[in-house]
User: Which sequence fits this backbone?
C-alpha cells in the first residue's frame, strides 16, 4: 500500500512538472522557435543548434547581445568549465565567463551538449571564436580536461593557456598528501618572481622528488604566475565558473527550454542591476576599483619615507618605515603595495592626479597637505617614478 502511494505521488509530481515546464522530449521540438524569439527580444543575441543526420538534437550554443558587447570591456582572461545536467535527458552545460571592471563575474557564452568530448568542445569553442573573436594578450583558464586542451590548442593556438591551480592542488593532495608540499606548491604558483619559484620547487624536490616530477609534467607557463607571459589579473583558478555552476544549480534539473529560460532571467536581472549601479556612479572608476584605491591611500597615510632616496642601477630605491607621523621634512608619502601590473599603473596615475591637485594649493603648504604615492616596485613604470622624484627634488 505504501509503495503504491509513493509511486502515485511521484507520478503526480512528474505530471505537475511536465505541465509547468513542458515534457522534456517535446522541448527539443520547440527549441528552434524559442531561440528565434529569444534573438528577436534580445538584439545582438546569437544562438545555433546542431542536429544529427536523423534530425535529432545534438548541441546548442547561445550568447546574449549584452555579453557580446560587454566582452570588449572585460579583462582578457576567459575561464571555461562544464557541469552535468540532471534532467531526464541529461547532457552537459558548458559555461565561459570573464570578469568585468567591477571585479564581478561576467557570463560570456553557454552551450548544452551530449557529453564532454573533443567534438563537442571544438564545436563550442568554434562558435565562441566566431562570435567574440580574439583579443590581444588573451588568456584562457580551464581544468586539465584533455578535450578542452585539444580544442583550445586547435582554435586558439596563439592564446596563452592556463590551468586552474585549484584542480592541480586537489590532484597533488590526492597523490602526495603533505601539507608542506601543498604550501610550497601554492607559493610557487602565486609568486611574481621566477627566482622565488625555483626556490620553492627546489624545496619540494628535497621533500619528495616524485611530487616535483608530477608538478612539472605541465609546463610552468600554464600554471605559475611568474612564467605566464600575459596578465592574469590575479585569476589563477576557475572558481568564477564554479560560482556560476552554483548559481545555476536549479536550472540543471530543468528541461532544456526551462534551463535556458532560467539562465536568461538570471542574466537579465544581473545586467539590469549593473546598469543601474553604473548609471548612478559619478566617477570614471568602478566601485570596486575606487574601494581598493581608498584602502591603499588610507594605508599609505600611516607610513613615511626615510631619506635619502637613491637611484640604484636605474631603479628608484625608497626605504620606508611604518609610523604615525604624516610629515617627513617636505614630503608625506603613501606607499602602495602593488601586486598586479594593472593596479600598479592605476596607482601611479593616481599619484600624478594628486600632484596636479596639489598645484591648486598654496605653494608653501601643499607638500605638507598631500601624501605622495611612491611605489617601491612599480613594474614597467620605473622611468615614471624617476621623473616623479625629480619633479619633487628627491633626486639630485
Assistant:
Amino acid at each position: 500500500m505504501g509503495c503504491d502511494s509513493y509511486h502515485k505521488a511521484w507520478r503526480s509530481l512528474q505530471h505537475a512538472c511536465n505541465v509547468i515546464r513542458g515534457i522534456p522530449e517535446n522541448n527539443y521540438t520547440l527549441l528552434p522557435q524559442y531561440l528565434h524569439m529569444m534573438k528577436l527580444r534580445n538584439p545582438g543575441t546569437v544562438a545555433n543548434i546542431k542536429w544529427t543526420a536523423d534530425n535529432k538534437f545534438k548541441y546548442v550554443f547561445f550568447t546574449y547581445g549584452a555579453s557580446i558587447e560587454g566582452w570588449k570591456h572585460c579583462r582578457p582572461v576567459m575561464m571555461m568549465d562544464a557541469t552535468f545536467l540532471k534532467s531526464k535527458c541529461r547532457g552537459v552545460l558548458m559555461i565561459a565567463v570573464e570578469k568585468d571592471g567591477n571585479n564581478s563575474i561576467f557570463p560570456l557564452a553557454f552551450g548544452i551538449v551530449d557529453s564532454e568530448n573533443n567534438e563537442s568542445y571544438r564545436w563550442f569553442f568554434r562558435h565562441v571564436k566566431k562570435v567574440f573573436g580574439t583579443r590581444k594578450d588573451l588568456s584562457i583558464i580551464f581544468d586539465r580536461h584533455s578535450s578542452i586542451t585539444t580544442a583550445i590548442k586547435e582554435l586558439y593556438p596563439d592564446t596563452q593557456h592556463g590551468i586552474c591551480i585549484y584542480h592541480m592542488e586537489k590532484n597533488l593532495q590526492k597523490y602526495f598528501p603533505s601539507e608542506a608540499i601543498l604550501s610550497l606548491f601554492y607559493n610557487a604558483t602565486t609568486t611574481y618572481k621566477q627566482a622565488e619559484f625555483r626556490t620553492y620547487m627546489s624545496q619540494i624536490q628535497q621533500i619528495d622528488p616524485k611530487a616535483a616530477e608530477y608538478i612539472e609534467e605541465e609546463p610552468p607557463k600554464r600554471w605559475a604566475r611568474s612564467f605566464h607571459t600575459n596578465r592574469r589579473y590575479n585569476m589563477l583558478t576557475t572558481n568564477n565558473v564554479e560560482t556560476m555552476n552554483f548559481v545555476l544549480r536549479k536550472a540543471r534539473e530543468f528541461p532544456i527550454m526551462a534551463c535556458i529560460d532560467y539562465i536568461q532571467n538570471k542574466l537579465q536581472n544581473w545586467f539590469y542591476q549593473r546598469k543601474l549601479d553604473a548609471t548612478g556612479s559619478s566617477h570614471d572608476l568602478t566601485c570596486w576599483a575606487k574601494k581598493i584605491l581608498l584602502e591603499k591611500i588610507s594605508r599609505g597615510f600611516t607610513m613615511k619615507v626615510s631619506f635619502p632616496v637613491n637611484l640604484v642601477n636605474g631603479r628608484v630605491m625608497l626605504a620606508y618605515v611604518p609610523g604615525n607621523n604624516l610629515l617627513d621634512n617636505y614630503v608625506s608619502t603613501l606607499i602602495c603595495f602593488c601586486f598586479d601590473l594593472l593596479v600598479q599603473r592605476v596607482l601611479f596615475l593616481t599619484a600624478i592626479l594628486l600632484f596636479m591637485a596639489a598645484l591648486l594649493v598654496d605653494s608653501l603648504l601643499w607638500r605638507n597637505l598631500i601624501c605622495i604615492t611612491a611605489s617601491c616596485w612599480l613594474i614597467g613604470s620605473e622611468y615614471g617614478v624617476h621623473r616623479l622624484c625629480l619633479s619633487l627634488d628627491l633626486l639630485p
Residues 311-344, 363-396 have pLDDT under 50 and may be disordered. The chain has two domains: 26-164+237-279, 287-391. Residues 26-164+237-279 form a domain with the Nucleotidyltransferase; domain 5 fold (CATH 3.30.420).
